[in-house]
Design a protein that fits this description.
The chain is α/β, with parallel strands linked by helices and about 625 residues long. The chain is built from 19 helices and 24 strands. This is DUF2075 domain-containing protein.
Length: about 625
């Protein structure tokens, strides 16, 4: 969707008449039925006159076309400025220009990452050239008009119109960003005439209407090149081989999709139920590869941002193909998507679905499950009711069945049982269910899974982090200071009797679980759900204890510090929903390990109880 598509002459008129903000506001209201925030309006009114000055200096033909605020399909991202026209040789060109109001920046660790002042404080974000380049590559891989019509050439750059380049060692021009700068050059405050000259070379002949039309109305689906990339990553990779009921679940979805291609009508919802470590994501990635090869428009959804980033890096890391990232989406991305826009949507970790996304508009009678089902002819949900860990989590088998019935969708259910994590030990999962009160069976722990209870948190660090290269996790029994002070994370997870203190994981590092500098940070349920590591060390806080007199687990409300997840206190005589959320949290944390899990209990009685069960 493009908010503004006009000739360069009309754009300049709107700027000179001081109407551009008003026109864009009206267009957003008409096309998206939403209001424009004051900050977004200010951004337009600050940046677009700067581009008007550049276009005036470029002395462009009146029928060169300007496109503003192009919303990348099925994402929340928008291209700031795009100009289309022909060069003197008659070649059709379109130039993406990412506009920034930055005044200074610093180089940062990580591929294509910089630091700058955003939202009231210094934050890590992507380099402007990286951003402009990936927007270009997104269009080249998803807009059929661009990847099928080789006559349109797409270019990208960034214009930092308030940024005075440092004379000695400009951070944004550091050699670490060289590959992105080569693909999308960056222009600073006093580079406006150079930018004007470069634009003129590409669109001097004007005649941009046809190009703008192709970009605005091009059909959205992955290119053949992207399909081949994903297929090559998964095919022949031992990590993605399907076994037993994984294959059954996979074939169920494939069969329904193949049938639907012939029938061209109907709607299907497929529920794949499975506990931790049953290989749900392996099935999902194989399905995505198959659907892409079958020319389906498919996306992979994960409500958990950290899990989504790790899945992306698993694939992108092998291929160096940034475009693969754009096949993965959060669960809040489908509010405005038309009915049956997608062929297939695959939703992993569906138990984490919400009523609506953060800062998203609410639609009466819809939640995220409804929106996903509405948006796709086939929707696949991987679900485990025992992994709901917040009052905001609404995903359950019952809810998905109810929402499917409202939409008249046919529901199919497959169950996964085999264990591919925890050393393949179904015994460990059964024992954990018994330990946490999900089962009344008295299970004896046996098998190859390495489980231990340690006596100090320092021992947990030594055994898990130092010796085995694993990660520490903890229940949400400590407050979280999320804003670093002087670049240092606060040591929030404090166990005074042992003189122990470490920080929660860095909220600015979505890839915390695999980043080497984060080894001595502690992951919480919201940043680890869906992930797996060889070894995990779990700190069980005082939110979970054990009463030897009643022989039962105790959940302490006052020790649970996740305010956003905490349900209201129940009425007298009613069960407390927090009990299940805390149990679910620790079951999820204690099933992240492939080879082993060690635990430290802040509650001594709980430690003794677990010891007695080992």
């Amino acid at each position: 969707m493009i908010i503004y598509n006009e000739t360069a002459a009309k754009f300049l008129d709107h700027i000179y008449e001081n109407k551009i903000g008003y026109v864009l506001q009206q267009n957003v209201h008409q096309k998206m039925n939403k209001a424009v925030s004051p900050s977004e309006l200010r951004s337009w009114e600050n940046s677009l006159p700067q581009m008007a000055r550049v276009l005036r200096d470029a002395d462009l033909k009146e029928d060169t076309h300007v496109l503003l605020e192009y919303k990348l399909p099925s994402t929340e991202k928008r291209i700031d400025f795009l100009i289309a026209g022909q060069d003197e040789q008659g070649t059709k060109n379109a130039v993406i220009i990412e506009l920034k109001q930055w005044q200074k920046a610093k180089a940062a660790e990580g591929d294509g990452i910089v630091k700058t002042f955003l939202g009231g404080r210094e934050r890590e974000t992507v380099h402007p050239s990286y951003q402009a380049d990936t927007y270009k590559r997104y269009l080249q891989n998803f807009n059929e008009s661009l990847y099928s019509d080789s006559t349109i050439r797409l270019h990208s750059c960034a214009f930092l119109h308030n940024y005075i380049m440092a004379r000695n060692g400009e951070p944004l021009l550091d050699t670490r960003y060289g590959s992105y700068l080569q693909q999308a050059p960056i222009y600073f405050q006093f580079d406006d005439r150079k930018l004007a000259g470069d634009i003129r070379k590409l669109v001097a002949k004007g005649q941009g209407a046809e190009i703008a039309e192709a970009i605005e109305h091009g059909k959205i689906r992955p290119s053949k090149k992207l399909v081949e990339t994903v297929s090559s990553l998964i095919a022949g990779n031992e990590e993605f081989i399907l076994l037993d009921e994984q294959k059954v679940a996979y074939e169920k979805v494939v069969t329904k999709y193949d049938q639907l291609k012939l029938q061209r009508d109907g709607k299907h919802v497929i529920l794949i139920k499975g506990g931790p470590g049953t290989g749900k994501s392996v099935i999902g990635l194989n399905l995505m590869s198959y659907m892409l090869r079958g020319d389906a428009y498919v996306q992979y959804i994960t409500p958990n941002q950290a899990f989504r980033e790790i899945l992306r890096k698993k694939l992108v890391g092998r291929s160096q193909s940034v475009e693969v990232r754009d096949l993965f989406r959060g669960s809040a991305a489908y509010v405005d998507v038309p009915e049956n826009y997608f062929d297939v949507l695959i939703c992993d970790e569906a138990h984490r679905l919400k009523e609506h996304g953060h800062m998203k508009k609410k639609i009466e009678g819809e939640n995220q499950a409804t929106q996903i089902m509405r948006s796709s002819r086939i929707s696949v949900f991987f679900i485990d009711d025992q992994q709901q860990v917040s009052k905001k989590d609404i995903g359950s088998v019952a809810l998905l069945e109810a929402e499917a019935a409202k939409l008249g969708a046919e529901v199919h259910t497959v169950e996964l049982e085999s264990q591919y994590r925890c050393s393949g030990s179904g015994n460990y999962i059964a024992w954990l269910d018994s330990l946490l009160g999900y089962s009344e069976e008295d299970i004896q722990l046996e098998g190859d899974f390495d489980f231990r209870v340690v006596s100090t948190p320092q021992q947990l660090v030594e055994e898990i982090v130092d010796k085995r290269g694993g990660r520490l996790l903890a229940g949400y029994a400590w407050d979280w200071t999320k804003n670093p002070k002087d670049g240092k994370l606060a040591d929030d997870v404090v166990i005074e009797e042992h003189g122990f203190a470490l920080p929660w994981n860095d909220p600015n590092r979505i890839d915390w679980a695999i980043h080497p500098e984060c080894a001595r940070q502690i992951g919480c349920i919201h940043t680890v759900q869906g992930l797996e590591m060889d070894y995990v060390g779990v700190i069980i806080g005082r939110d979970l204890g054990y009463d030897p007199h009643t022989g039962s687990l105790v959940v302490r409300r006052e020790e649970f510090r996740d305010k956003g997840a905490k349900p209201a206190k129940p009425k007298k005589g009613q069960p407390d929903p927090l009990v299940d959320l805390v149990r679910n949290t620790y079951k999820t944390l204690m099933t992240r390990g492939i080879k082993g899990c060690y635990v430290y209990c802040c509650d001594g009685e709980l430690a003794a109880y677990i010891h007695s069960k080992v």
